[in-house]
Structure formats: C-alpha cells, structure tokens
Amino acid sequence: MENKVICPHCNKDNISKRGSYQTAVKGKVQRFYCRNCDKKFIIRDGFYRMRNSPEKITLCIDLYFKGISTRKVQEHIQTFYPKNSTWVSIYNWLIKYSNMVGSFTDTLKINTSRRIQVDEMEFFTKGKATWFIDTIDPESKFMVSSSFFDRRGTQEVREVLSLAKTKDGEINHITTDGFHVYKHSVKRVFFRMGYELTHKIVTASKGEGFNHPIERLHNTIRERTKIMRGFHGSVNSAKILMKGLEINYNFNRKHQTINCYPYELVSDLKFGRNKWLDLIRLSKKV
C-alpha cells in the first residue's frame, strides 16, 4: 500500500510533521503541515471522528459476516469493552463500511480466468420478492460482480454484467442457465465488432447439469442470510449488506478448494490479518 502522505486540500506531497494531539479512542494522532498551501491536517483513515476504535468496529463487522446477529455481537463485545455499543450502532457500521469498501472494490481491475458464471437468487424484502444477481470466476472463486434489485429484468442483468466487464475486459466465456433474459443481456453488453465471446447455456431441467461453482457460492450465501429473517429494511440497505457479503467472501474467507483467499488469485493486493481494517483504510486513500 502507498504510504506517501498527500495534502487533502491541494493534493501535493510537500508535507512535514507538525506535532500531535491525544485522543480518547486512538491515542496520539500525528498532525501534518503542508508547505505548499500552508495548512495543517491529520490523515482521515476511514475512522475519523468515530467514537470507537478501528479494531472494535472491524471486529463487529467481521463477526456479523461470519454469521452472528448484531444483537449477539453486542452481547459478545460487552464482555471485552467497558463502553458497549448498541446493536443499532453496529448495524450503522455495517452499512457505512460495506458501502465505503464496496465503492473501492467495484473499481478494482482484476485478472480472472476469462470465464464467468452468472446466476441469481431470490429473497424477500418487506414481504416482496427481490433478487441478488452475481457473477463468479469458477477458477479463483472470486465473485466478480453483484448487485441487489427489486426485479430481475434485462436492465438489472446488464448492470451486473457491465460491472464484470469493467473489472476484467478480457472475459471471453460466459455460462448461464436458461433464463431468457441472459441471452439478450449478454449480447447487448459483450457482443460487438471484433469481440470474441462464447455464451454457454446450461439448463438443469433438460439434464444438462448445473453451474456448480456459482451454486456452491449461493449455498454459502444462504447459510448467512437464512438467519436474517428476510431483509426488513429498504432494498437499498439490503443491497449494501449484500455488497458486504461479497467483500467478505472475496477478501476475508479462505476458500478450501483453492486453499487461499479468492482475491489472492486475481490481484496483487496484500493485506494483513485484519483485512477489513486494511480495506477500509485503502478505500479512504483512493
């Protein structure tokens, strides 16, 4: 990761240290001075003005995406932190940082096997059918793109496919099921003069088998979402939480089949033990 300090006011790197001050949560915080615009500043690493430490916040995020409810996370951290946080605060952290990191990971350029599988999952939000549409690289198990919608039409599928194409412009093989929307969407997003792409349609009802990698991914997602009792908030909140699940799957969950984290096979990113902490800080720098 880039360690150079950049002035947030003028985007120059003519920087020197200019003292520090004590905070209740983070201890001593370094203050910097920009010789170019003559302003002082501190590095805002994604936890600016948060009343809880980065370690506590990322601990709660990690526990939630490992399958523990916000209320049980609250009970757990109460044992270790004298000043406890409510489950509402924990939920707000989930929304804030899933959205922040998701904005960064959606812009990543990755190097997949050039093959993706596409499928969708049905959920219920406020009693109405909603859809999670996603793509996965079957070799690295990396979830290339995903989003959450209140319908599964051509526009929604094209949005997910377009994001996958943006992240890896060399995709040349797409596998889907027989849902009629996929054929038209793949054609609109990928087929153009000089672009070679194979679209394979696998229909299980015709005995043509299953798209096992993405089906296995959906089983993993079901294990987490089945205890959420549906998405009681808005479609937008559900969309952000599902983005958090994507991030956790790609960066914070070691896959047994490949014996590593999926991101390690498609990118050059390096992270420490607390990957949520590193992702948040990296997201804030970009």
Keywords summarizing the entry:
286 residues, alpha/beta, N-terminal domain of TfIIb, Nucleotidyltransferase, domain 5, five-stranded mixed beta sheet, three-stranded antiparallel beta sheet, 9 helices, 8 strands
Walk me through the structure.
This protein has 286 residues and is an alpha/beta fold. The chain folds into three domains: 1-43, N-terminal domain of TfIIb (Single Sheet), CATH 2.20.25; 54-102; 115-280, Nucleotidyltransferase, domain 5. The protein has helices at 54-65, 70-78, 87-105, 154-167, 180-190, 212-225, 235-251, 263-266, 275-285, and strands at 15-23, 27-34, 39-41, 115-125, 128-136, 143-149, 173-176, 198-201. A five-stranded mixed beta sheet has the order 6-5-4-7-8, with helices on both faces. Strands 1-2-3 form a three-stranded antiparallel beta sheet, with no helix packed on it. The radius of gyration is 21 Å and the shape is globular. It starts with 14 loop residues before the first strand and ends with a helix. The mean pLDDT is 87.
Identify low-pLDDT runs: none
- Global shape: globular
H-E order: EEEHHHEEEHEHEHHHH
Q: Mean pLDDT, as a whole number?
A: 87
* Proportion in helices: 25-40%
Distance between the termini: 11 Å
CATH architecture assignment name of the largest domain: 2-Layer Sandwich
Report strand %: 15-25%
- The class by helix and strand makeup works out as alpha/beta
Radius of gyration: 21 Å
Strand order of the largest sheet: 6-5-4-7-8
Number of helices: 9
CATH homologous superfamily descriptor of the largest domain:
Ribonuclease H-like superfamily/Ribonuclease H
CATH topology of the largest domain: Nucleotidyltransferase, domain 5
Task: Count structural domains.
Answer: 3
- What does the largest sheet look like? 5 strands, mixed
The oligomeric state is single chain
Q: How many beta-strand runs?
A: 8
CATH class group of the largest domain: Alpha Beta
